[in-house]
Amino acid sequence: MNRIGILALQGDYAAHAAAVLRAGASSFEARTAEDIESAPAMIIPGGESTVMGSLLIRFGLMDTLIRRIREGMPVFGTCAGLILLASRIEGRRQPGIGLLDVGVRRNAYGTQVDSFREHIETSIPEVRRLEAVFIRAPKITSVGPEVEVLASCRGDPVLVRQGLIVGAAFHPELNPDAAIHRWFLGL
User: For residue range 14-70, what is the model confidence (pLDDT) as tens digits?
Assistant: First the structure.
């Protein structure tokens, strides 16, 4: 995959664009239904999940994005993107995509001042160990039977995959080697 769409309604999409470039590919900012239609794959960045969900609905993009993912477009959601992809959000009703069979709890690792970095091990052969950055991170509280846990931190899943849907509770775009992005581009 040489060119990937990054949902650019809100959040740190620029950091993902830089990571995709470090991973050896190019990206474009996806803001319209046409952008989503043309994307061979999509990244949904961190940011504020309620705002992103509301904007997807307001701009008429939610149905297009859900349809493309159901049709097999690979998608990678990080932090708020993971929350949008999750089928269950604890204690909260908010707009979402709901196609990744996981339960999540927003801001479960604490507030902004509780942000942390931690080395994690993954089951991805190309990415055995990496430093994960957690910023107001969601916690994956449950995984469905079709979901593969690729990495855990402090006993909780933090990187999961269900087919071509990938979710991370941390911010891999802040990792200088872009190993997770390189792996995702190879899906």
Answer: 999 999 999 999 999 999 999 999 999 999 999 999 999 999 999 999 999 999 999
Q: Is 112 exposed, middle or buried (0-12, 13-18, 19+ CB in 10 A)?
A: exposed
The reply to whether 119 belongs to the active site is: no
CATH of the domain at 116: 3.40.50.880
The answer to whether 79 is a known catalytic residue is yes
Residue of 16, 79, 153, 181 marked active site: 79
**Distance from C-alpha of 187 to C-alpha of 176, rounded to nearest angstrom:** 21
The active-site residue out of 16, 29, 37, 173 is: 173
Number of structural domains, the chain? 1
Catalytic choice (16, 153, 171, 181): 171
Is residue 153 part of the annotated active site? The answer reads no
Length of the chain: 187
Residue range 153-187, pLDDT digits in tens = 999 999 999 999 999 999 999 999 899 999 999 98
